C-alpha cells in the first residue's frame, strides 16, 4: 500500500503534547524553500543531500502552493473531488517536493525536534537524506526527533507533500482544497518528552491549581506568590477568574529540566449544572461565529497580524465566542482568544461529509481501519490545546455521520480531560457528548428545544439524557451573500429559554480568493470540473475583513446591555455574565427630522450582571412640528485592548413626536394634452401608456410596477431538495419578465388616472395597478393601488416602482433608516436619521452581485449632482435603492466588475419588500417577512 493511502496515523511522529512557549532554543525554518510540483507521485531522490535543485522554483513556507501559481485552488462543499474509495486516492495526486538548506547555529545543542504546525494533507520528511517519517492530519502538529540526524553547519531538509491521502477522507470540510506546508516549521531544542498540562479551576472564589509535568518540576506564579511542585494541588485564595468578558491571565513559569516554560494561566471551571452550561457558576450565552482559517492572498497560511485583526473586529461587534470550524486553528489564535477573551469550541480536524451523498456507506468514522487515525487526530487536538482557558468545549469534528471511531474519540477525550464538555452535532442521539447541538434548526424547533419539548428519540434513556442537556446552535443563520434575516427572533429565544445558550453564526469570513485583476474568485473561477460555486461566499466580513452590512445587525442583536425607553424612563438591562455596567457611559441625543438639537451625558447606575435598573430622562427642548427621535448610546468609558473609549456597545432609539400630517396636495394644475403627451405640472406623461416620461427638464423612464429583485444567494438556494428555490419560482412565475398593458388613461378634473394590467407570459396571475396623479404646482404626487388578480402561487420579491433619471446625479441625502441597509427581517442596527452618501457608496459590493443596499423607512430623499436636485417623498415610508444599473443587469452579473454604469440612474421606491431570510440552510423565512401577494395602497411624490 502506498504510504499516503495508509489509513493509519503517520509514522515516526512523536507523541503529541501542548504547544508551549519556552526558552528552549528555536530555529524558524520558515522562509524561501525550493519547490517542484508534479501532477502525480514521481520518483524520490530529491531528498539526497547533494541533489541539484537549482532549477526548481522558490516558494515561501508556510504557504498554500496554489496561492503562488502552482496548481489552482479548488472548492467543493460536501463532494469529494475524487472517487470515493477509501483509503485510496487517484494517481493524479498533485505532489509538491520542498527542499531547504539551512545552517545550524554553532552554539546549538540538546535534544531537538523538528515541528510542523500544519501540512495539507500528507508529508514525508527527510533530514540530511534520512527519512524521519510521515504525517497526516493537516491542521494538526507533528514533531519528529532529529537528534541523531541533525548536523552542525549545513543541513538539508526535504519534504514531499501530497495533496490527496487517506487523510483527505477525514478532511472533507466545506472550504477550498489548498495543499501545502501552510503553518510554521521549526527546530526546537527541547526534551522530546517534556509536556505541561495545567488544571486551573475556580472554586468558591479561589483558584485550584495543579500542573502536570516532569517529575521535580515546579510552577511559579509571581503575582500570586505561588511556588508549587508540579503534581501537587494548591488552593489560591483571592484569585480573579478568567472569562471571555474579563480575561484575567496570570503569568507563570514551569522549570523543566533544560527549559523554562512560560504559561498564561486562566482560572475557570466549566460545568453543566441542571442542564445549563456554566462557567464559574454563571450561565454562558454564546454570541459566536464559526471561523475558518482563510486569507484571500495566502490561503490557509494566515498571517498572525490578520488573526489579531479578525478578533478585534469580532470583539467590536459584541461577538464573544468562536467555534474553530472545522479543525484546530493556528495556536496563536488561541493565545489571542485567551488574551482578548473569547469562549472557544475547539474542533478536531475531522469531517467526512461526502459520505452523506452515498448514504454514509463506508464512512471512515465507522471503519475500524480509520480508528487509529481518528484517535490520533483527537489526541493531537486535545494535547496541543489543553492549556488554553479560552477552550471551554471540545468538539469531535463536524459532519462525520455516526460511528464507533467517534465514540472512541469521545471516550479518550473524556478520560484525558474531564474538565471540558464534549460536543459533536452529527449524532442526534448525543450518545457520546454532553451538549445537545444542532445546526440551522428553525426558530420553532429551537423554541421546542428551549421548552425541553423536542421530538423524542426512540430510545427513552438516550432521550432523557439528551433532554437534560444544554443546547447550542453550532451553526445558524447562514450569511451567504445578502443576509441572513431573523437574528433578533433567535436571540429572543436565547433570552427566554435558559437551556438555549446561543450559537455560532455561519460563518465569519467570505472565502473569496484575490485574483490578479483585483477581483475575488469563488468556486468555479479556477477551472474546477466539480465545484460548489458561490457557496464559499457566506461570511459576515468580506475577505479583506471589511464588515458586511449584517455585522452591524449582529452587533446590535448581540449587545450585552439592552436599553429601552418608555415615557421618560430609560431601562438598562445587563446581559453580561460577569461584568457590571461600570465600564460604560451613557449619551443621549435628540434630533428633529435628523438634525441634532440637543445632546448630553446621562448617569449610568452600576447594574450587576443579569439585573436591570432605570434612569429618569432629562428635560428635553420644546417640541417642534417635526419628527423627533431620541437616541441613547452606551459606550466604553475607557480604552480597552480591542476598542477605544467611546466605542458603542449598545443603543436604542425612540420616537418622541411625529409631525401632524402634511395636507394632501392641493390641486394646482390640471392635466393638459400636448401633442402625444399629457402634461401635469412638472410631469410629462406618455398619452398612450400614461407612464411618466419627463419631470422638470429631465427625461424619465418609468416602470409602473416591479415585483422582482436580483436574486440573493439565499433566494437562489433551497435546503429541501423537493422544493424549488425562490429564484426559480420567481422565474417560473415570470416576475423578472413582467409585461404591461395599459387599460386606461383618464385626465379628469385635476387628476390623471392611469390603470395598467401587469402580468407575465403563460400565467393568469396579474396585478391591476392604478395610479392617480395630482400636483400642487410643485410636487407631483401619485396614489398607487395594486390588486392581485388570478392565482398567485409565489411570494413577491418586492412591490415597487422604478424611475430612470439622467446619470448626472451622483449623491443623495435621505431621512430614514441608515446609515446601512435595512430589510424587513434585518434592520435592528439601522437608526432613523439624516444621511448622505454617493450613489457608488450606496451599493454593497457583494462578491456575487445580488439585491443590496436598500435603505428602509425612508421619509424623503434628495438626489443631487450636475443634473440638479430631485426630491422623493413617500407615505407610508418606502425602501429606496439607487443604482447605476438596472435590476436585470444586477441579476445577470457574476462578479462586481461585470456591473458598468449606464447612462441613467435607476431609483426604485419599494412600498413592500420580501425579507432576506436564511433558507440556504434550513430555517424558513419568518412570516410576516414572506411577502405574500396582497392588495396595497401607497403614495409617493416627486419634485
Ligand atoms: C454545514 C457545514 C458547514 C457549512 C455549512 C454551510 O452543514 O457544517 O461546514 O458547509 O453547512 O451552510
TrEMBL record:
The keyword Hydrolase applies. Its EC number is 3.2.1.23. It comes from the Bacteria. Keywords: Glycosidase, Hydrolase. One of its GO terms (biological process) is lactose catabolic process. One of its GO terms (cellular component) is beta-galactosidase complex. The keyword Zinc does not apply. It is an enzyme of class 3 (hydrolase). Residues 678-943 form the Beta galactosidase small chain/ domain. It catalyses: Hydrolysis of terminal non-reducing beta-D-galactose residues in beta-D-galactosides. Gene3D superfamilies: 2.70.98.10, Galactose-binding domain-like (2.60.120.260), Glycosidases (3.20.20.80), Immunoglobulins (2.60.40.10). GO terms for molecular function: beta-galactosidase activity; carbohydrate binding. SMART domains: Bgal_small_N (SM01038). Belongs to the glycosyl hydrolase 2 family. This is Beta-galactosidase. It comes from Kribbella sindirgiensis. The lineage of its organism: Bacteria, Bacillati, Actinomycetota, Actinomycetes, Propionibacteriales.
